[in-house]
Input
Amino acid sequence: MKRCLLILCVFVLFSCKKEQGCTDQIAINFNSTAEEDDGSCIYSFVGGYWITQSITTEGSILTSAGSTIVSDSSFNFTETNPDSLSPYRIDFFNNNTFFEFDISNDTVDIGDWSVNGNQLTIDHGDTSSTLLIQSLERDNTVLIENISETSSFMGLTISYNITRTFNSRRQF
Output
């Protein structure tokens, strides 16, 4: 009898384990039956809206005439003034559209978006941008845009390489 009682107690003890999984409802892998969060949540851009906190811009511009360098400049600055942040706010929707707003909450752009691996593509209709998703968490994301171009103007060749890092916070 004691042996049966011991086996029953051990069975009850181990069968009462709480199911683990992602318990955050905005995560794409939300598990409605999980009772204990195991830190496995994976997030999308959809849900709430994103407010840009800062944009760090760094890069270089090289101007040359033939093989002669006319100017060679580099720069690095971080913008945190909400009036100067563009985009200030972006809302991403499940149908892969987005709305972009300025600080006055006026719509400044509408378009389509998609994610492929660690790249976010924003299509504005007349132009598109591809950004590297450095991180995407529940409340924060870091996106990186690289721009490199070379053009000619009045016999000068102008080459620039610019990297912009967008730090945004999700609001609900």
